[in-house]
């Protein structure tokens, strides 16, 4: 399975009183990476909503925190699709920091995203072109 990597920098606003990244912000980092992954496939979420009446929502999230990130750290979020359904995608995501010549795993997550009708919020099948694009990177 191909890995999509998205770089990011830790800003002061991402940290807590201890000076480390606040735990919920790892979910934001993962969300940004999934959005950029989708954009990289040629699909914008606002266009999917306007043209197809589709939105994505996190159905479940499981995150394990292993090591803290701190202000100004350069991180990367690696995302892999592990399962594709007609109306859902499961991602394995890792947040890593480059330390010298090695990558340190800071957090890892399993995120299930559901495709929903934007008006009813009921599950909806992904359009054929989107499903083909997603399957092409698995």
How is this structure best described in words?
The structure is a single chain. With 138 residues, this protein is α+β, with helices and mostly antiparallel strands. It has one domain (4-136): Thiol Ester Dehydrase, Chain A (Roll), CATH 3.10.129.10. Helix content is 25%, strand content 41%. It has three helices and five strands; from the N terminus they run E-H-H-E-E-E-E-H. Strands 1-3-4-5-2 form a five-stranded antiparallel beta sheet. Strand 3 and strand 4 form a beta hairpin. 20% of the residues are buried. The model has no long low-confidence stretch (mean pLDDT 96).
Distance between the termini: 5 Å
* Arithmetic mean of pLDDT: 96
Q: What share of residues is helical?
A: 25-40%
What is the fourth-level CATH superfamily? Hotdog Thioesterase
The largest sheet has its strands arranged as 1-3-4-5-2
Please name the CATH architecture.
Roll
Number of strands: 5
At the first level of CATH, the class is: Alpha Beta
Largest sheet: 5 strands, antiparallel
Tell me the Rg in angstroms. Answer: 16 Å
Determine the strand fraction and express it as a percent band.
Answer: 35-45%
Continuous helix count: 3
Number of domains: 1
Outline type: elongated
CATH domain topology: Thiol Ester Dehydrase, Chain A
Unreliable stretches = none
Structural class: alpha+beta
> What is the ordering of alpha helices and beta strands?
EHHEEEEH
């Amino acid at each position: 399975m191909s890995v999509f990597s998205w770089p990011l920098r830790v800003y002061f606003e991402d940290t807590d009183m201890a000076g480390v990244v606040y735990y919920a912000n790892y979910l934001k980092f993962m969300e940004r990476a999934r959005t950029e992954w989708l954009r990289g496939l040629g699909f914008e979420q606002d266009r999917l909503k306007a043209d197809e009446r589709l939105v994505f929502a996190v159905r479940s999230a499981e995150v394990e925190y292993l090591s803290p990130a701190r202000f100004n750290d350069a991180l990367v979020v690696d995302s892999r699709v592990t399962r594709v359904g007609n109306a859902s995608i499961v991602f394995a995501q890792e947040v890593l920091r480059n330390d010298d010549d090695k990558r340190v795993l800071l957090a890892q997550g399993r995120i299930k995203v559901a495709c929903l009708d934007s008006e009813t919020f009921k599950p909806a099948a992904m359009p054929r072109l989107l499903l083909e694009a997603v399957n092409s990177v698995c």
